[in-house]
């Protein structure tokens, strides 16, 4: 009888341990995390942050960004490769050639993967022309 109780107890503990292991393997959400902090700094790479916004895109667009839906759509269009933001500058706009550096950053998680991006522009006009009205940095 003792062997039977011990065997049942061992089987119960094994079942509970396996169930606990399966429970830990389940994702905590149906959506991969997507939360990013965006900044604009004056004065180059070590400059002073003059604007910042938070953006969370899953399960819904939210954050301190003034238009989180448009910003999430713009971020989704990059597929996490923010250098694509620089691909289509507005060639119809001319900028002064004075040096007053501006740096933009994006740090966080996009669809479960860590991203960290930084790009410097010679001045705010060049930034605006290069980003060409992209909603991601329209804050």
Rg = 24 Å
User: What class, by secondary structure content?
Assistant: alpha+beta
Strand order of the largest sheet: 2-1-3-4
- Unreliable stretches (pLDDT < 50, length at least 5) are 1-26
Major sheet summary line: 4 strands, antiparallel
Helix coverage percent of residues? 25-40%
- Our estimate of the beta-strand percent is 25-35%
Your description of this structure?
It is a single chain. The protein is α+β, with helices and mostly antiparallel strands and 139 residues long. The protein is built from three helices and four strands. The chain is globular, with a radius of gyration of 24 Å.
Entry summary:
The protein is an alpha+beta fold and 139 residues long.
Topology:
Blueprint: H1 2-25, E1 35-42, E2 48-56, H2 68-78, E3 102-110, E4 113-121, H3 124-131
Antiparallel strand pairs: 1-2, 1-3, 3-4
Relevant terms:
4 strands; four-stranded antiparallel β-sheet; 3 helices; about 140 residues; globular; alpha+beta
């Amino acid at each position: 009888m003792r062997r039977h109780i011990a065997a049942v107890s061992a089987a119960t503990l094994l079942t509970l341990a396996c169930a606990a292991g399966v429970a830990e393997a389940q994702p905590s959400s149906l959506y991969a995390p997507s939360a990013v902090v965006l900044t604009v700094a004056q004065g180059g790479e070590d400059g002073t942050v003059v604007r910042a916004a938070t953006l969370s895109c899953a399960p819904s667009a939210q954050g301190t960004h003034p238009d989180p839906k448009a910003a999430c759509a713009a971020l989704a269009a990059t597929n996490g490769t923010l250098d694509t933001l620089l691909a289509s500058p507005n060639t119809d706009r001319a900028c002064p050639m004075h040096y007053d550096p501006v740096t933009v950053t994006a740090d966080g998680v996009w669809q479960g993967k860590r991203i960290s991006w930084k790009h410097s522009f010679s001045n705010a006009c060049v930034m605006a022309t290069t980003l060409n009205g992209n909603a991601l940095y329209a804050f």
